[in-house]
Write a structure and sequence with these properties.
mainly beta, five-stranded mixed beta sheet, single chain, Methylamine Dehydrogenase, Chain H
């Protein structure tokens, strides 16, 4: 188990004398820490950016959308849901099941031993079994399956025609391997030369050319093995994982400290004609890796990328005096849609809570999770799932939460929420 050396949440305004948020000189301070397993739980969303109060009407009362259907499942090590070809595909402890998007009726089911799956181009790549019995299964939207044995694999993700496989040695040292199309020999192998615990990786994110492998934390005070690599070269990268309370940012001794912290975000991604190589980092949008700043996020949390626009949440400091080292019970802010190249805001909607992920974007709605700090429990707790209209920013609906959802997905008609063994389809 990785040792937690640092757990920081920062609330504060812009540093006096800092370049303005769109100044190309504005770049992030480089980390200089050198612990062999250093994790900073950095709530980037909580760094106040001196945001002005947002215009708009009264905040709408929360109201849940209509429920289309629900099904009960038995969750395994990696519960997930995807919306693919008028189906909701769900992982369970016994396999993958497809449910009809309109009715919730089972369409097909593939038996697998406690799989961990990823999705690319409408197909799932699943690792099931454990140790020497581990196998990789590729499943189409029609439920067709191809398999290959892959001992000690834990999770895999397709990168175009190539495959990245992550696992661990029998003694616990983690590794990631790349296999190019048609090749039986690996292209490269990356890993740590020290064991990092008994937990198998259960999730993988592929975004902006970086593949991140991790296991979700069930205990907020416990860190589990995480690793990020350049999907092309295998070079170790900083780990950045979206959470309900901001970004989880991780570094270890083998990662170069001057590398950009690239952010996985919901939505179709960046498409800037003047900057085809642009990347999204924890500091904003750059023209290219290690390039100039196009848009500085100024401490806000970017939750989605809509080609030329961003959706971000920004904290608004309370008007009354407060102690920055202690988080307030309420974290008011705004969700806003911003043009990346001009910095102009097309809409801005007030919120009473911190807003983050898991999240999903469809053609009309941004679905985001809100959280607040509990002084009594001494930790963040999720509150609701909110649906924001992409054109107007209106908060269209809200679903109260008792626990954080394992996964959220959407298509043009439904929002699918997997939480505590229940899959619920809501009408969007």
């Amino acid at each position: 188990m990785g040792r937690r050396d640092e757990d920081e949440f920062t609330l504060g305004g812009e540093v006096s004398g800092s370049p303005p948020r769109n100044d190309p000189r504005r770049r992030r301070a480089r980390s200089s820490v050198g612990s062999p397993w250093l994790w900073g739980t950095t709530a980037v969303a909580l760094i106040a950016a001196g945001i002005a109060t947002s215009p708009g009407g009264e905040r709408p009362e929360p109201r849940p959308p209509a429920t289309a259907w629900t099904v009960q499942i038995t969750e395994g090590r990696a519960p997930q849901v995807w919306a693919i070809e008028n189906q909701a595909l769900v992982t369970t402890v016994t396999g993958v099941t497809a449910f009809d998007a309109a009715t919730g009726d089972e369409v097909w089911s593939v038996p697998l031993a406690d799989p961990a799956c990823t999705e690319a181009d409408g197909e799932l790549t699943c690792v099931h079994g454990e140790g020497e019995d581990a196998t990789i299964a590729t499943i189409t939207a029609a439920g067709e399956v191809t398999e290959q044995a892959f001992p000690f694999a834990a999770v895999a993700v397709s990168v175009g025609d190539a495959l990245l496989v992550a696992g661990g040695t029998p003694s616990g040292e983690p590794w990631v391997e790349r296999y190019d199309a048609g090749e039986t020999e690996r292209t490269w192998r990356a890993g740590y030369d020290h064991p990092v615990g008994e937990d198998r990786w259960a999730r993988a994110i592929l975004s902006q050319g970086v593949a991140t492998f991790y296991t979700p934390m069930t205990d907020p005070e416990t860190f589990v093995p995480m690793m990020a690599v350049d999907a092309s070269t295998g070079e170790l990268r900083p780990v950045v994982i979206p959470t309900p309370r901001g970004y989880l940012v991780g570094m270890n001794a083998d990662v170069e400290r001057n590398l950009d912290q690239l952010v996985p975000a919901a939505g179709p991604g960046l498409d800037l004609p003047d900057h085809p190589d642009a990347v999204l980092t924890t500091e904003g949008v750059l023209t290219s890796p290690e390039g100039d700043t196009v848009y500085a996020s100024g401490g806000s949390t970017v939750v989605a990328v809509l080609r030329t626009d961003l959706l971000e949440w920004a904290f608004i400091p309370p008007e009354e005096p407060w102690e920055p080292s202690t988080l307030p019970e309420e974290l008011p802010g705004v969700v806003r849609r911003v043009d990346i190249t001009t910095g102009e805001t097309s809409w801005s909607t007030p919120t009473e809570s911190l807003v983050g992920c898991p999240c999903t974007i469809n053609n009309t709605t941004a679905v985001l999770v809100s959280s607040n700090w509990s002084q009594g429990e001494g930790q963040f707790g999720v509150e609701s799932i909110h649906g924001f209209d992409l054109d107007t920013g209106n908060a269209e609906w809200s679903i109260p939460l008792a626990v954080a959802p394992e996964a959220i997905a959407s298509d043009d008609r439904h929002i699918y929420v997997l939480s505590d063994g229940t899959v619920t389809a809501y009408a969007d």
